Fold this protein.
Amino acid sequence: MSHNQNDQNENLNAFIDNQLATDERIQIFDSLKKDEKLSHTLCELQRNDELLSLAYNTIPKSPYDPYAAATKFSQRTKQMIAAGLLVILSAAFGWQFHLFYNSSPGENIQDIAYLSSEKLQNSKVIIHVSKMDPDRINTALDKAELLLNQQKDIQLEVLANAEGIGLLRTNSPYASRIESLSKQHKNLSFKACGIALKTVELKEGHDIELLPEAEKIPAGLDQILKRLKLGWLYVKA
Amino acid sequence: MFGRSKRFKQVLQEKWQELYKVAYAWSHDRALSADLVQETITRCLHRPEKFQNEDELKIWLFKVLRNCWRDDLRRRKPQVDINEVELHASNDPESQHHITQVMTHVTKAFQAMTIEHREILSLIVIEGFSYEAAAKILEIPTGTVMSRVSRARKTLRDQLKDIDFPDNVTPTLWRVK
């Protein structure tokens, strides 16, 4: 095939695909009027295009919705990142715990069962809720109330993360108790871990609303570490 | 930024069927086509900051689809047997019988073409991309697109020469796009 013929074929294709400038289109129109063979070629090529488009307009349906799968996959990735972050923070917390435990055993870390205002030497306490165990939560709220009533200068923070985030959701079974405790004690605050919240949101596929008394913080374990460094007493519910 | 806007996800949701159509034209495999589209959208969702506007996104989507398809081809050489290609046309048996036969012939002829030719015709003829956009998607110069389209159409024409076309698909003289 000659160079000229190649050019003519390419121009004819560009004409079909509407890729030519006006003057080039006019030239092709002139050629088509003079050259019957060229006209026939043009028609054949256009018919083939129509057939090709038609053939692939009636393809079998996708076995699944790739968009929905991709967005779900993306959510899974985010969850994995959140989980990874939680592992790193947990490790960091474990290390910090180890340091505190070694430096002053039992002083800064306690179990909720052993918390009492009589032995309390610290005026700043953080209570960590990570499970929705009604016994532990009721004990934690009872002890918190007791401490607040007995030690007026105490600063008490209830921090919920992981599964414990349920404590601070609007549908929490403890909502009215939290409301009444917050009204009575200005030195009591409730913090919700942002990572735990995001994880639940991804799992449930919608935004999670918190109780008005709860304040969202970026990361629960990070907050615990900060409090420990500042000398707060850590109590695990 | 467009990549962070609501419209960005809307476009992805709207475009997946077009991507699927082209992926199917290349592979003739439903499951593989869906997987390629899923992978394309996933990659897009991971890099939203890359996109400033809709046109850019559309070109990028097809570019990624093509890369995914090429990666898949490299991984597994065997292809779908063109004799087993399914064709799904209207299921009115009387009026559609002949046209269905023609369509089967067309898809088989298309599948017998080289990958390069299938790619270029899918983008230009089925998806209606401009030569410039196709050049960006395929990462080749516009001049190469022009010559490749010409060669691909010629091949298809040679393959379809001897078909007995039904009346309703007979060439219409002077019908220009």
About this structure: The mean pLDDT of chain A is 82. Residues 3-55 of chain A form one domain. The beta strands of chain A are 109-111, 124-129, 155-160, 188-193, 214-217, 233-236. The first helix of chain A runs from residue 3 to 16.
